[in-house]
Structures are given as C-alpha cells and as structure tokens.
Amino acid sequence: MQRGFQLGLLLLAFQLFQEGLGNIPAVTLTVLGFNVYLYMFPAAPLMKACVSLQYVYKDKDWRRLFLSPLHHVDDWHLYFNMVSFLWKGIRLERRLGGGWFLYLLSVFSLLTGLVYLLLQAALTTLMKDSDLLAEFIDVSSHSRECAVGFSGVLFALKVVTNHYNPGGVTFVLNIRVSNRFASWVELVMIYLIAPGTSLIGHLAGILVGLLYTVGPLETIMKTSADGNNPRTSSYFNFSGYSGTTREHSEDPQHAEDHTVDDASKSDIARLTEEEQLEMAIRNSLNDGGRTRQRETARPAYGVHPTAEEVRLEELRRRRLRRFGEVSNKRRRRL
After folding, report:
1. Per-residue pLDDT reduced to its tens digit, 36-88
2. Which of 27, 12, 144 is closest to 78 using CA atoms?
3. What is the H or E stretch that residue 170 is in?
4. What does the alpha-carbon distance between residue 76 and residue 213 come to, in Å, rounded to a whole number?
5. CA 8 to chain centroid
6. Which residues are tagged catalytic?
7. What is the rounded distance in angstroms from the CA atom of residue 307 to the CA atom of residue 317?
8. Contacts 24+ apart (CB under 8 A), 13-16
9. What integer is the mean pLDDT of 102-106?
10. pLDDT tens for residues 217-261?
11. What was the pLDDT predicted at 112?
C-alpha cells in the first residue's frame, strides 16, 4: 500500500528506541512489529477486515475475527494503540512469561470479536423493543458499525493489568481514578471525547478481561493447555510460563548433596590412602551436624549404605584410632 508521510509511524519508532529495543520482551515486540507490518501491507482492505454482525455472522465471513484486531484505520490509530500495548505488554509479559502472554493475546483477540458480535446482536434486539434506549444512545449506528483495530484487546489487557495492581491508581485526563474502575471511566471518557470510536468494541474488551480475572476463562485456558499437551503442566503454572522444569527433589539440600557425592566418587580414586583418610575426617568434622540431621530424617527401615560409604566410614574410624594412639603416646612422654 502506498502511503504519504506517516507522522504516527515516526513517533512510534521514536517511542520504541526511547524505550530501548533490548528492554522490550520478545512477544510484545513481535506482536507490535506484526501490527505495523499489516498496517503497511494489509492482508485485506479495511472493509473486508472489519468485524460486524452482518459481515461475520450473516455472511459467514469468520476470518474477519482474526483480521480485525490486526488492522488499523490510519497511522494515529496505530500509534495510540501500539504505545498503549507497549506499556501493557512489557509489564504483563514479564509477569506472566512469553508463552502464556502469547496464549493470552490469541484468546483475547478471538474472544473480543465474539463478544463484540454478541453485544451487537443484543443491542439490535433492544433497539426493536425499546424506544427509551434509542433516546439516549444511537443504537442503530452501533448495530451497523464495522469495527477494526486492537483497542478491544487493549481494554481486556488493561483489566488484567489493573487486576494485578488492585491498590494502584490511574490518571484519566488528569483525573485520579482507582484501578478497579479505571477501565470503565476510560470507556465513558473516550466515547464522550471521540464519539466515532467503537463503544461496543471497547466494552467487549472489558468484559473479556473480566472473564479472565473474575470469571472462568483463566481456568479454562489452563485446563485446555494441559489437556492438549501433557508437558505444558511443567511450563504453565499459576503465574504463567516459567520455561523451566524441576525434575529433582524439592529439597535444595538433597540436590546439593547429590552433586557433591558424584564429584567425590570421581576424585577419591585418584587420592592415596592417607589423603583419603584425611579427607574423610575433614568431611566428618565439617559436615557432621548436617549428616546427623539427614540420618535422623531417614526411616529406620529399607536403608542400606553403599559400598563407598562403608569404605569411607571404615577409613575414618581407622584414622581416628591412629590419631588416638598417637595422642596417648605423646601424653605418656609428657
């Protein structure tokens, strides 16, 4: 697509370099870049990418649910949405992890469009039955609108972000608002200041965010992730994607002892008998308290020392007896 001078893109690039590309998590940066790419080279014209009840449900054009969040009307639309996404994405991806955050974005993008269609259908029904509602809201315009842009997903992310900071405050047009109500206040303020924005699309995003924070959506997502791939239970936990698995005992002391034992077995064979005796005594003196704690914690049945442990114990006893004999001889001489 051929476009003229794009001040919004220039400001967005400045914002990215000011933040520092190395400080932006991978998923956030990739999704942001993908939105910019589809703005420069759209997958479909806006009228074939926007979502509405007529085009999606009645005309069975379901691909609009995937195209709509990733297309923007102009460079300012893209700029404001991506700057907002940059702020939310950095915080949420660092908190949830890249894998879960990408999963969250995918689900939010699809659900926002579906909830939008349900709200549009509900308003269309109310419009037919209520003249009072039509006096305050131009319901007919909302029932015919075709929405495009990332704003609905951003409102859902805003609900999640505020959920993780319940005691914080947000400034909406220099008005101090509690995070619990910030999304609702912003919804009303944006509609009053810019009536051309999609009230239903923003409301759909808030409802999807609430489905995740206080509804069953998070549980359903975790159950679905674990059911599709049994290994995901090692990667997805209550705080999101961890990227690591813990296959050893949860007791860090046991894991540390296992490493020390393996190293000792490989080194003992290289020592002389005298060096082995001295090492056994030194380990006994240094780790005596810790060894006694482990022996006390072990059950009295079903435990058999290894041959290496028996040999080291015998060497330690012989060394102690020899040390005692030498000490007795020195006392007699004195």
Report:
1. 999 999 999 999 999 998 899 888 999 999 999 999 999 999 999 999 999 99
2. 12
3. strand 169-172
4. 30
5. 29
6. 151, 202
7. 15
8. 15/83, 15/86, 16/86
9. 97
10. 999 999 988 876 654 443 343 333 333 333 333 333 333 333 334
11. 96
Q: Would you say the C-alpha torsion 156, 161, 164, 165 has a positive or negative sign?
A: negative
Q: Which two tokens stand for residue 19?
A: 């933040």
Q: How far is CA 4 from the centre of its chain?
A: 38
Q: Which residue type, as a one-letter code, is found at position 206?
A: I
- Gyration radius (Cα) of the chain, Å: 33
Q: Nearest 5°: phi and psi at 57?
A: -80, -50
For the purposes of burial, counting CB atoms within 10 Å of the CB of 277, is it exposed (0-12), middle (13-18) or buried (19 or more)?
Answer: buried
The distance of Cα 323 from the centroid of its chain, to the nearest Å, equals: 60
- Written as six digits, the tokens of 164 are 């993780």
Q: What count of Cα atoms within 13 Å lies in the side-chain half-sphere of residue 101?
A: 23
Computed from CA positions of residues 123, 128, 132, 138, in that sequence, does the dihedral angle turn out positive or negative? positive
